[in-house]
Amino acid sequence: MSKVKKGFQAAILVAGFALITGCASTSQVEEARAETEAVRGDLQRALQMAEEANRKADQALEAARAAQQAADAGEQCCQDVRQELDRALQRMQRK
Question: What pTM did the predictor assign?
Fold first, then answer.
């Protein structure tokens, strides 16, 4: 083989290798891009779940506050009734 022919074959081999390497790199980039998109989707779903959990926690907190207010009002009512009964008992004892 002549030097030109060998050089041409070497150039073809190098070009083929570069093409294959380039395809592998492109394939790897596409795979990485797909994985990144999958992770992004997972993160988006996790964020939505966290936001929903936060909304539910806020609702639970409001319900707990309302229950505490109702309990406080019930306790105050009970104390008022007890005081009224004590006064009534005292009035009855004076008579």
Answer: 0.54
H or E element, residue 78: helix 3-94
DSSP H or E segment with residue 3: helix 3-94
Residue 29 token pair: 């980039």
Q: What is the rounded CA–CA span in Å between residue 46 and residue 34?
A: 18
Classified as helix, coil or strand, 5 is helix
| CA diameter of the chain | 137
Q: What is the pLDDT of residues 31-53, one digit of tens each?
A: 888 888 888 889 999 999 999 99
Sequence-distant (6+) residues with CB within 8 A of 35 are: none
